[in-house]
Design brief:
Blueprint (H helix, E strand, L loop, with lengths): L1 H38 L14 H13 L5 H43 L4 E12 L6 E7 L2 E6 L6 E6 L5 E6 L6 E7 L2 E6 L4 E6 L5 E6 L7 E3 L4 E4 L4 E5 L6 E6 L1 E2 L2 E2 L3 E7 L2 E6 L4 E5 L6 E6 L16 E7 L4 E6 L4 E9 L2
Parallel strand pairs: 1-19
Antiparallel strand pairs: 1-22, 2-3, 3-4, 4-5, 6-7, 7-8, 8-9, 10-11, 11-12, 12-13, 14-15, 16-17, 17-18, 18-19, 20-21, 21-22
Helix pairs in contact: 2-3
């Protein structure tokens, strides 16, 4: 009996030891399994979005942020989500900004149209001066009662210094017969003259008329003026080109429009009190253009300034604008016109 009791006690203890060992093993497995789920992604290492609600996801983010030893997969997932949201917000903001800018531009154009822009002007003749009716005028500059004039036609193109009061030609340079003279402007003691289709311009000393340089451009040359900082050039299109006055390299472009439509055939140019005056070829109109926006803010109608019977040639069209910025005087003439006029702008009724 005693031997049997010992065996019973030994079996009882062995059974409890076995049970405790099994329970201990189960507890360890459960803890390790929980850690792997919380800190590690799938076995392949590819980040995936769990099919759980946002409250569970929020809890995972907190666990990742609080444990620096955790996997970076969840951290990347959180960051990319934030970036995605931010990008969406930025894109929406940009879209709204673009729409607003577009709406503002359209609104401004509409307001200009409603408010009467472009403004309409006619003219009053202040003084009439003689002009060489054989001069095919392409460019005109006035300084100190002296005109500097570029004339065109192959074999007849010239650069001239002319007395404003008498029309007498004081100095003259004939261009090579290969060149058709076009626009003209002054930059300090230099004169800059364009040619039509030769894609070359010439630079002269204003006092001596000695040619001191040349430059090229990949378009036709029509009109040119200087705003004190940039050369502004026309090509017979609706686009004006800005050029550096030293290197003559292109620095920008300006599309000219009136009531949202392009204005083509821009020819002779002059910079007048912060605006660009541009003769429209084969018309008696001068467009007054904003150099900031390209919008035509006014039209100057010079119809009738030279009676039709005094225009001796069919090509005798308006094509000469010069502004004396010292005395605030505006002059106009044309190809083969017998007169040059000082005028004042008069608002149309």
């Amino acid at each position: 009996m005693k031997h049997r009791s010992y065996l019973s006690i030994f079996a009882f203890r062995t059974t409890w030891i076995t049970v405790l060992a099994v329970l201990f093993a189960m507890g360890n497995c459960s803890c390790e399994s929980g850690q792997r789920i919380n800190r590690s992604g799938p076995a392949s290492g590819t980040a995936q979005t769990p099919a759980t609600n946002s409250s569970t996801s929020s809890g995972d983010q907190g666990s990742v942020l609080s444990d620096s030893s955790g996997s970076s997969a969840d951290s990347n997932q959180v960051d990319s989500s934030a970036v995605s949201d931010s990008t969406t917000t930025d894109s929406t903001a940009l879209s709204l900004a673009d729409t607003t800018a577009s709406d503002s531009s359209t609104t401004a154009a509409s307001q200009d149209w409603i408010s009467g822009l472009p403004r309409l002007y006619t003219y009053r003749i202040v003084e009439t001066y003689p002009h060489d009716h054989d001069a095919f005028t392409q460019g005109l500059v006035v300084q100190d009662s002296i005109l500097y004039e570029s004339t065109g036609l192959y074999g007849e193109s010239t650069l001239r210094k002319v007395s404003l009061n008498t029309g007498e030609v004081l100095k003259r340079v004939d261009l090579d017969s290969r060149y058709f003279g076009e626009g003209l402007t002054a930059i300090g003691n230099r004169l800059v003259q364009l040619t039509w289709k030769s894609e070359v311009g010439f630079v002269y000393d204003k006092a001596s008329f000695e040619q001191t340089g040349s430059f090229t451009y990949p378009t036709e040359g029509w009109g040119i003026t200087y705003d004190g900082e940039r050369l502004i050039m026309s090509t017979g299109s609706s686009t004006l080109y800005f050029r550096d006055p030293e290197t003559f390299e292109e620095t920008g472009r300006l599309e000219v429009t009136a009531n949202l439509s392009p204005v083509a055939n821009l020819n002779e140019l002059e910079f007048v009190e912060g605006e660009i005056f541009a003769n429209v070829w084969q018309t008696d109109r001068i467009a007054i253009i904003s150099p900031q926006t390209g919008q035509v803010t006014g039209w100057l109608d010079l119809s009738g300034i030279v009676p039709s019977e005094e225009r001796l040639e069919s090509g005798a069209v308006l094509n000469g604008i010069a502004y004396d910025d010292k005395d605030n005087r505006l002059y106009v003439t044309g190809k083969l016109w017998p007169y040059l006029f000082e005028i004042e702008l008069v608002p149309s009724e």
